[in-house]
Write a structure and sequence with these properties.
Strand order of the largest sheet of chain A: 1-2
Helix content of chain A: 55-70%
Bound molecules: manganese (II) ion
Largest sheet of chain A: 2 strands, antiparallel
Oligomer: homodimer
Order of helices and strands of chain A: HHHEEHHH
CATH superfamily of chain A: Winged helix-like DNA-binding domain superfamily/Winged helix DNA-binding domain
Chain lengths: 150, 150
Amino acid sequence: MATKSKDLATPAMPTEAAQAQRFEKARSAQSTALLEDYVELISDLLASSGEARPTDVARRLGVAHATAIKTIARLKREGLATSRPYRGVFLTEAGKALADRVRLRHRLVVDLLMAVGVPADSAEVDAEGIEHHVSDAALAAFRDFLAQRG
Amino acid sequence: MATKSKDLATPAMPTEAAQAQRFEKARSAQSTALLEDYVELISDLLASSGEARPTDVARRLGVAHATAIKTIARLKREGLATSRPYRGVFLTEAGKALADRVRLRHRLVVDLLMAVGVPADSAEVDAEGIEHHVSDAALAAFRDFLAQRG
DNA sequence: ACCAAAATGTAGCACAGGCTACAAATTGGA
DNA sequence: TCCAATTTGTAGCCTGTGCTACATTTTGGT
Ligand SMILES: [Mn+2]
Ligand SMILES: [Mn+2]
Ligand SMILES: [Mn+2]
Ligand SMILES: [Mn+2]
């Protein structure tokens, strides 16, 4: 045995810098997770019923309507949405683009989970949180994996 | 075609209640994610160097030491850790148990990601966020999947 | 033994995202 | 038409998690 390792079952800790960078990335993903869920949901509501009312958004997210309105205000601040009083919420081009990316990613994550044997209902629940932490590299790997086992 | 569906590529939206429950679960997972990362890290530091100083914890997490100290205070409030000034942080039995569960889950997620083709470095980064949203059902599926392809 | 550097702790700020309570506008049914 | 129910918006509170600045304690090298 060439390398001197204390315990094969216990991998060495990463360097401080590397570990800090991983945590920082997870924190940043978490900070955009909510916006992603909102635009995906708004896009779905627009597609399925032609409008996305703050009250509907709130009900679907399971939060108070005041909470939804505040977050929608943040979407507007960040250039992802617009809204007209009593006419609902709409997505900007940037918002639409984000919604499309997020929806694809969401589906791919659900498919991958089911492909490795996760029950459908668990897959749906877990994907809602997991999706926000899946990198493009992982997404690409998921696609390849799913393609190869048709 | 028996069912009348508008678009096969666009699955119907879940019911309001089901969707709200999913989002609620994701929110709750997110609220414990930070605690999980702290106890796992503290456990690693204790195992590898015998002590876990707030400054080390902060450096590894990439946050200011004041931030780490505050979160450690929350760990203590929640019965996961204790600390003696200038002697570092220690885990309670509950904290140790949580750390062990979290470490196993973290490794399993990394292994699963690599097994489906995600590059090792991406797997490590993504797992840091994903792990907190993986249900027991999914974990069991991951284990089975990994076992079956030895 | 002492003092400077490092570590630790505290205080106070900002912002996000929950909540409830209340106010105002709109809508639709009688 | 008009009023009550619904929807929307606002205000103010709390908690969590970042930050910086400053104070205190401990430690270690001379
Ligand atoms: Mn989601
Ligand atoms: Mn989603
Ligand atoms: Mn993590
Ligand atoms: Mn982890």
